Amino acid sequence: MRKKIVVGNWKMNKTVTESITLAAEVIAAIGKEFSGCDVGIAPAFPALYEVGKLTLPSRVSLVAQNCHFEPDGAFTGEVSASMVREAGCSAVIIGHSERRQYFGETNAIVNSKVKQALSEGLQVIMCVGETLEQREGGVTGDVVTAQVREGLLGIGNISNMVIAYEPVWAIGTGKTATSEQAEEVHLMIRNTVSDLLGEEAAEKLRIQYGGSVKPSNAKELFSMPNIDGGLIGGASLNVADFVAIVNAAD
Ligand code: PGA
């Protein structure tokens, strides 16, 4: 049985002060109510260190939203994997569709970031997902398979990885994939990983769903056999909603 994992991706929301407040509320609520699934929050970079002081003694883990593919150097404005690790993160999100769409991240860049983060001992949440045009053009399978294959190129051990399937058309739009649509792609991702790294690694891999997950749809999504939790954007900024989603996974 795979343990479910729910992570709140706060994106470019919340100042340091606001992040501390939200994190404290989430930790207080989660501490009381949840037991069985892994929970993480991903504030923006400036808030990581201070929020890390709150998450460290709690059951909530601290997650970065991105990191660079080089260990250090002249990359103005960038943040390295070792920096986020030392700030208190145990995990990092790599290849989110907003990074791919607005910051030109290709599968090759995603792959080098994944390798760098893993080498720093960070758990990696690697995001994949098709656009609306790709879905309507019938190429969802090709696109997502290529993202998985190229993202995992040269990586032999995925025991510290999670894959998040996030159809771009469902992110922040209020449109969720139906649980059947999501399950179909999750199964395909698992089969792709099985081809690449064997059945055992594929069976252990946790595959999160992301894209307009809310308290009202979380339970049904998380009840599908290949959906192992969620990557939550908008709803993670509301404590009650986030806790309800965690409880649905728990
Ligand atoms: P959303 O975002 O829940 O606001 O759709 C999900 C994500 O981008 O991780």
Secondary structure layout:
Blueprint (H helix, E strand, L loop, with lengths): L4 E5 L6 H18 L4 E5 L5 H8 L4 E5 L16 H6 L4 E4 L2 H6 L4 H13 L3 E6 L3 H5 L3 H12 L9 E5 L13 H19 L1 H6 L1 E5 L4 H8 L6 E4 L6 H11 L1
Parallel strand pairs: 1-2, 1-8, 2-3, 3-4, 4-5, 5-6, 6-7, 7-8
Helix pairs in contact: 1-2, 1-11, 5-7, 7-8, 10-11
The site of 2-phosphoglycolic acid has 13 residues, from strand 8.
Structure report:
- The protein is globular, with a radius of gyration of 17 Å.
- It is an alpha/beta fold and 250 residues long.
- Strand 3, helix 3 and strand 4 (91-94) form a beta-alpha-beta unit.
- It has one domain: Alpha-Beta Barrel (TIM Barrel).
- Helix content is 45%, strand content 16%.
- It has 11 helices and 8 strands.
- The protein starts with a strand and ends with a helix.
- The protein has an 8-stranded parallel beta barrel, surrounded by 7 helices.
- The longest helix is centred in the C-terminal third of the chain and has 19 residues, at 179-197.
- The mean pLDDT is 96.
- It has helices at residues 16-33, 48-55, 81-86, 97-102, 107-119, 132-136, 140-151, 179-197, 199-204, 215-222, 239-249; strands at 5-9, 38-42, 60-64, 91-94, 123-128, 161-165, 206-210, 229-232.
- Bound molecules: 2-phosphoglycolic acid.
- The site of 2-phosphoglycolic acid has 13 residues, from strand 8.
Outline the biggest β-sheet.
8 strands, parallel, barrel
Q: Compounds present?
A: 2-phosphoglycolic acid
Average pLDDT figure: 96
**Cα Rg:** 17 Å
Strand content: 15-25%
Integer count of domains: 1
Give the name of the CATH superfamily: Aldolase class I
**Helical amount:** 40-55%
What is the 3D shape?
A: globular
| Helix/strand structural class | alpha/beta
Q: What is the CATH fold-level name?
A: TIM Barrel
CATH architecture descriptor text: Alpha-Beta Barrel
Q: Helix count, per DSSP?
A: 11
Separation, N- and C-terminal Cα atoms: 13 Å
**Number of DSSP-assigned strands:** 8
The SSE order reads EHEHEHEHHEHHEHHEHEH
Spatial strand arrangement across the major sheet = 1-2-3-4-5-6-7-8
Question: For the record, what CATH class applies?
Answer: Alpha Beta
User: Can you tell me the residue ranges where pLDDT is under 50 for at least 5 consecutive residues?
Assistant: none
